[in-house]
């Protein structure tokens, strides 16, 4: 008889302690019934396991799926973060179209007027949800503060991308999470918008439409798209060639320090 690939499974018992069980215990009907109600994983904790009990073969554990761990797990933001997150989600959920962008002085005679420049303009209803776990790579996921997806289109296309909104107060992404977001936005239609609590309501804000059939606006400055961090409509590396996503570790460190130095993130 071949040895099973997963001879031992582990789970959390009623006392929240890790308990291990050998596959030979699966011959007991009561034990099998008990274990089916548990979140079983392999000894490394990286694979979710199920139970098989074939009538003419040895009972064993089998792989259900790879277990995904949160990239930025354990970060705790304050009440301001939660308030802004919930308010933005409620605001967006009330509309059927959206403009995300920034204000810029137009080249016109009246220099006092500001024009709103779009980073992305959506003319279809989106579903907006808070605290969404989004699997980006095998075995890892990131939990977005807010994630929007089109209700009308199931196609993963640039016209109607996933729109993630990260509300930042005193914490920024880990280096690993940031690097994965750079890569993900190159490979799938995903844009990650940053809403900094410290810059609200001046540089980051939500604005109701000027007229009944107008677009609501979300004002932003920084976002990730196509493998780069953008300031308004300029890639950071085009503004300053000392920044380079080709050296992602250094890119992250310089961006993080820039955000702290300019007061975007509360120390």
Describe, in plain words, how this protein is organized in 3D.
The protein has 267 residues and is an alpha+beta fold. The protein folds into two domains: 8-67, no CATH class; 70-261, no CATH class. It has helices at residues 29-35, 79-93, 175-187, 236-239, 248-261; strands at 8-12, 18-22, 47-52, 60-66, 69-70, 98-104, 115-122, 126-137, 140-150, 162-168, 190-196, 205-207, 217-219, 222-225, 228-231, 234-235. Strands 5, 8, 9, 10, 11, 14, 15 and 16 form an eight-stranded mixed β-sheet that branches. Strands 7-6-13-12 form a four-stranded mixed β-sheet, covered by helices on one side. A two-stranded antiparallel ribbon has the order 1-2. The longest helix has 15 residues, at 79-93. It starts with 7 loop residues before the first strand and ends in a 6-residue tail after the last helix. 25% of the residues are buried. The model has no long low-confidence stretch (mean pLDDT 88).
**How many domain units?**
2
Which residue ranges are poorly predicted, with pLDDT under 50 across at least 5 consecutive positions? Answer: none
Radius of gyration, CA atoms, in whole angstroms:
24 Å
**Number of contiguous helices:** 5
- Proportion of residues in extended strands: 25-35%
String of helices and strands: EEHEEEHEEEEEHEEEEEEHH
Distance between the termini: 60 Å
Largest sheet: 8 strands, mixed
How confident overall, as mean pLDDT? 88
Determine the fraction of residues in helical runs and give it as a percent range: 10-25%
The secondary-structure class comes to alpha+beta
């Amino acid at each position: 008889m071949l040895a099973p690939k997963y001879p031992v499974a582990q789970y959390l018992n009623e006392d929240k302690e890790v308990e291990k069980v050998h596959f030979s215990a699966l011959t007991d009907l009561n034990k099998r019934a008990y274990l089916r109600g548990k979140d079983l994983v392999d000894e490394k904790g990286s694979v979710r396991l199920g139970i098989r009990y074939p009538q003419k073969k040895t009972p064993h554990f089998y792989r259900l799926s790879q277990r995904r761990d949160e990239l930025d797990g354990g970060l705790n933001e304050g009440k301001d973060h939660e308030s802004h997150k919930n308010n933005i989600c409620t605001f967006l959920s009330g509309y059927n179209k959206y403009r995300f962008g920034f204000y810029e002085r137009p080249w016109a005679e009246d220099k006092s007027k500001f024009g709103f420049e779009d980073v992305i303009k959506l003319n279809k209803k989106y579903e907006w949800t808070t605290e969404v776990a989004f699997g980006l790579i095998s075995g890892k996921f990131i939990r977005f503060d807010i994630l929007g997806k089109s209700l009308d289109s199931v196609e993963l296309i640039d016209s109607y991308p996933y729109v993630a909104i990260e509300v930042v107060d005193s914490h920024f992404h880990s280096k690993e999470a940031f690097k994965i977001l750079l890569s993900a936005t190159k490979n799938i239609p995903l844009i990650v918008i940053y809403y900094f609590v410290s810059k609200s309501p001046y540089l980051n804000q939500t604005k109701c439409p000027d007229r009944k059939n107008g677009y609501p606006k979300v004002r932003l400055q920084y976002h990730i798209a196509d493998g780069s961090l953008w300031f308004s409509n300029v890639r950071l590396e085009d503004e300053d060639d000392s920044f380079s996503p080709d050296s992602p570790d250094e890119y992250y460190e310089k961006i993080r320090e820039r955000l702290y130095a300019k007061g975007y993130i509360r120390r």
